[in-house]
């Protein structure tokens, strides 16, 4: 049997309803969760580690990197790693680990949308499915995977799309890369990870700004003046912004603050196809870096990792050229 390490970080999978406040709070450590899923050790030799018991909005970039370093070490010893995580920020931690951890062994993130006090707790099914996949040869060399609701997604593409549905995790551009049926993972296509950033530290001071009609430069200038080290802008459409924001763009780039442009559209990549003031071409001419098809929160994670590696804008541009499409 394979040796699988489950690292518990918290999230709804570890929560119970507190009757006094009538709301869910973290209550269970890893062993408590495994006690609710008695058959999981028929699949593999399970080892368990409590990293934290926090709801996922409490996780910080520094904690994410600490987790990534731990996974890199443990992946040398175990055949596969499963990480349980709150679903709210699961996509961010999973992507940071995907970017910064270079193991060929399966690393699977999972969680739950319902707490164990609710009817239909999905934690058991998700955890069993994740362990099955972590123990499978076919999940090797695929980077970090996210498994929820029987679907297998790559960490770089998956996002939480619904606040309460069990069917919330979606890879909106090309769908899940596989699924688990009858206790076996299947992959639709041969997919290999294309991004890696070698970092020992992370720069957490990165701002994320969403564009809307009529916005001006003040928010960008405020971020720069408050010491931000990088900015991700969720532009409109294929990567265009209101012209009133342009003085802020120039202000940041003149101070060597990288600006990554992504789209507030839920699918598709950004491009420099528009040449008008504030269009993608105008922005790249000013030194803005295109962020591919990443959403804002993932582009921010990538910029935090990139800035942990280099401050050089040309190097950061090269890092953002590593994409999931050829
Ligand atoms: N708010 C919870 C968290 O992210 C939700 C969840 O775990 O799904 O920790």
What would you say this structure looks like, in words?
InterPro entries: AsnASE_II, Asp/glu_Ase-like_sf, Asparaginase/glutaminase-like, Asparaginase/glutaminase_AS1, Asparaginase_C, L-asparaginase_C, L-asparaginase_N, L-asparaginase_N_sf. Pfam families: Asparaginase, Asparaginase_C. With 326 residues, this protein is an alpha/beta fold. It has 2 domains: 3-187, Rossmann fold (3-Layer(aba) Sandwich); 206-321, Rossmann fold. Helices cover 27% and strands 23% of the residues. The chain is built from 9 helices and 16 strands. It has helices at residues 30-35, 61-74, 90-100, 123-134, 218-225, 246-254, 280-285, 296-309, 313-321, and strands spanning 3-10, 15-18, 23-26, 45-54, 80-84, 107-110, 144-148, 151-154, 158-160, 169-171, 178-181, 184-187, 206-210, 230-235, 259-263, 289-290. The strands form 4 sheets. The protein has an 8-stranded mixed sheet with strand order 4-1-5-6-7-8-11-12, with helices on both faces. The chain has a 4-stranded parallel sheet with strand order 13-14-15-16, with helices on both faces. A two-stranded antiparallel sheet has the order 2-3. Helix 2 (61-74) crosses helix 3 (90-100), helix 3 packs parallel to helix 8 (296-309) and helix 5 (218-225) packs parallel to helix 6. The longest helix has 14 residues, at 61-74. The radius of gyration is 20 Å and the shape is globular. It starts with a strand and ends in a 5-residue tail after the last helix. The model has no long low-confidence stretch (mean pLDDT 96). Residues 11-12, 55-56, 86-88, 111, 113 line the site of aspartic acid.
